[in-house]
Amino acid sequence: MKNIKIILIVILFCLAIMSNCSLQSGYVFVSVTDRNGVPLKDTKVTINKNGKVISELKTLKSGAAHFSDIPNDDYDVTVKPQKKYENTTVKINKEDMKNDNPLSVKIIVKLKQ
Fold first, then answer.
1. From start to end of the chain, where are the E strands?
2. Where do the structural domains in the chain lie, given as residue ranges?
3. In this predicted model, what pLDDT tens digit does every residue of 29-65 receive, in sequence order?
């Protein structure tokens, strides 16, 4: 009987840990282009949570930035392109990340006015 209680405690502990695993890490693929579809290379892309930078990359020649091990949560994705383009921020949420892993985010930046 004592062994059964220990086994049940271990099972309940494991279930409690697994229920907190909804904050799994995932991938976020960001594609940055201008309005004509031209990829923007060497563009700084940051993933922010409440103003704190979670991860930061520069885009490749293809305009892509591939983030990995991003915890499933709500974020702002900010793009800071070259001087002639406007900074752009888009929101992603934990539901998007949970349902679409990897999550693809396409950001089209505008020329500064």
1. 25-33, 44-49, 52-58, 64-71, 75-80, 88-92, 103-108
2. 25-108
3. 999 999 999 999 999 999 999 999 999 999 999 999 9
Pick the CATH number of 25-108 from 3.40.120.10, 2.40.160.20, 3.90.1010.10, 2.60.40.1120: 2.60.40.1120
User: How far, in Å, CA of 38 to CA of 26, rounded?
Assistant: 27
Alpha-carbon distance 85 to 109, whole Å? 6
| Per-residue pLDDT tens over the stretch 74-89 | 999 999 998 899 999 9
93: tokens are 């949420």
